[in-house]
Amino acid sequence: MEKLLLLDGNSLINRAFYALPPLNNPQGQQVQAVFGFATMLVKMFDTIKPDYIVTAFDVHAPTFRHKMYDGYKASRKGMPDELAAQMPVLKEMLDVMGIKRVELAGYEADDLIGTLSKRFDTETYIVTGDRDSLQLIDAKTRVLLTRRGITDTDEYDLNTIEEKMGLTPSGVIDYKSLAGDGSDDIPGVAGVGDKTAKSLLSKYGDLDGVYAQIDSVTPVSLKNKLIDGKESAYLSKTLATIDTAVPMECELSDCGYKFPFSSEVFAFFERQGFKSLIRRGELFDTSVGLPVAPKREKAQERMLVGLDEIKSVLKDKSDVALYVEGELFHLAVDEKTEYTVSLHYDFFSSGVSESELIAALKDMLCDPKVTKTVFDSKSFITYLYKNFKFVAQGFFDVRLAQYIADATVPHATLESLLDAYSIDRKDIASGMLGLKKSLDKELEETGMHRLYYDIELPLVKVLFDMEQAGFAVNREKLEEIGAIFTAEEKSLEKQIHAAAGKAFNIKSPKQLAKVLFEDLGIPYPKKGAKTYNTSAEILEQLDASYTIVPLVLRYRFITKLNATYVDGLRKLIDSKGTVHTEFRQTLTTTGRLSSVEPNLQNIPVREEDGKVLRSLFFAREGFTLVSADYSQIELRIMAHYSGDPTMRRAYLDGTDIHAYTAAQVYGVPLEQVTPLMRRTAKTVNFGIIYGISEFGLASSLKIAKGEAKKFIENYFERFSGVREYLDNCVSEAKKNGYVTTLLGRRRKIPELFSPVYFTRQFGERAAMNMPLQGTAADIIKIAMLNVSRALEGMRSRLILQVHDELIVETALDEVAAVKEILRDKMENAFTLSVPLVVDISEGKSWFDCK
DNA sequence: GGCTTCACG
DNA sequence: ACGTACGTGAAGCCG
Description:
- The protein is α/β, with parallel strands linked by helices.
- It is built from 34 helices and 23 strands.
- The strands form six sheets. Strands 3-2-1-4-5-6 form a six-stranded mixed sheet, with helices on both faces.
- Helix 7 packs across helix 11, helix 31 packs across helix 32 (720-736) and helix 33 crosses helix 34.
- The longest helix has 34 residues, at 757-790.
- The chain is globular.
């Protein structure tokens, strides 16, 4: 018999949307739901081999919609805009595939599917995530319910529905009439749930049976609930019943489709970036001469036993891939063969021990002429250094290359990367050689070859050295400061509890809000707020006559310092009194580094009482700290990029930029700029870097939006080049889908294509900020490479980077030389049209560097 | 595990 | 009509 496949378009795309991570097409639009739908379809073609397909969609009665700035908003409550935006793409896909789609105003997809399932006398498969559809099962109709993933389904037919659900198809309706369905707004009978509904149905057959013998229902309480809920039960029955007689035109002969796919489908997949589908040649009709990419052959698997065999495979090879996975060591010298070595070594087994293997490979690992392709080279050389005490070199880092190629996928795993390039997960090492080839080409094509090979890759070793060097921490002083903090914390806690009139957990924002705004009745500054916010920003606005408020603020401050920096740091000090941060090089979207365990990039500095924590970080015996930081590097980059003559003038003349900005914006001579004017101008300058918005500036300056608007207008009038630059950033980003730094680092900004106004605004600000923040990151990375080279042969060591600051632990007799190196290498890392200026300080501890 | 809060550039 | 400045990490609460 011929087979008909009925798909619930809304339900399935919804599943696909939530089952997959966001995935963007080359234009930056999210398309993961469409991709998931396509994958499901292909699976269905494969397993069911239907003769006919129809996809049904919901069309709700038109509702009033507010006019949007962007003229668009999700049409259905509960559907996120990111999904709604994919509906037209899905429909386009179905059209190019020649798959019939049906929709009818006022009917749900369910009803259309129900009608079609009854209309044709043929074997019918319904695919949906909606359990309601189980009522449509009959001798020729079965239902495939989607499971967790996107291609897995549970099949229900007339036999299995009884076993799996304990219900008949029509029982599904009766069940809902009694138990209701919260997610579908079906009330059911109050007080009747899953268990009761099923036992009633098994006893009385169906809903009518229950009410026919209502007097025999026990216990009496249940009987009364049923009597009270009778009207609701029958209303529910109407609601739960799928309409199988929708007046719609559709004949089986309209429902054919073309598979294998045509060249139009291929072109569609290409436009949407569905690489893994494009690579599957068998999906396409080859008779039309498609440019189908050859499918990557799966590598031959070979187990290597014994060191001699391993050595002979590697002999004279200059391009190898390595991956250690538990007790398995993966190895490849070309893409055709996947070698595995078992590191499980004992008296009986024939495996090779880890230390034997590494010893045998040591020369190769340290030979820069042999390129070792690995996933995360810093982890790999750290592992070798910790366990075997040598420093390997000569790597291609697949994770790093992928991050440079596309930083919107943060910290990708090797599996996700192999999947993305349609490489079998078992081909770990040989697959990495494939990845290397693809990524290398991608970097070349996108102009990021040099960024990767000349900056990021060599930086790995610099970061490794910094991590190993570590930063010495004064443990006695840590305990002293901790004791002081703890004492104050205790005292504050007592005072706060006394002021509140009771003990409560001050660290719980919920409990704190209740005490402040309800128990003590402090007026909440934002009227109409749904939930209380207890952030410092709000607390600072509260009526000064409530003494509890400053106590809470101080308590927050002290506990933050104590928990994060005293307790947090203590746990991470090694036996030598040193902390070794880990720098993450493949994380941020702008190209900055991040620092973890401990994060040494957010040690307090702004508040005096917090800044004392910097005295814990000190230079070891015979050394001192030299710190160098760029002065307003991002604004200088802005001056360079925009070429704004007014702004450049300030930097060329060496004028105080914030005072100068104030003079311009307020229209007064430089000498008449007050500290308040300067402070305001400084905030405006920060705003410029962040991608200014009226709202953001207003909230930062705590002024009205209208006033902020005036500031911005004044600013742009004086610095018109800056406005042109920012506008240009956004328009370029919208045209290309990405922005770039001076060194060609790219950041895709898919948010610019969101249907949601706010998300798009965010994308625009990110487009303005990234070239500035990212170029600053590029420049300090170059400086780090040059500083570290210049320090070779000296005893002084680079130990920390804090975005625009470098710290060198400096041998006492090298102080002058180090200062000169830092100034020279940092100021000359890159030539801009305005000077880069570095401020240098020195001290035994970080606190003393001022 | 998500949310809130707050430390840094 | 609604609510954010850009980029991070850590701690603690809460469900």
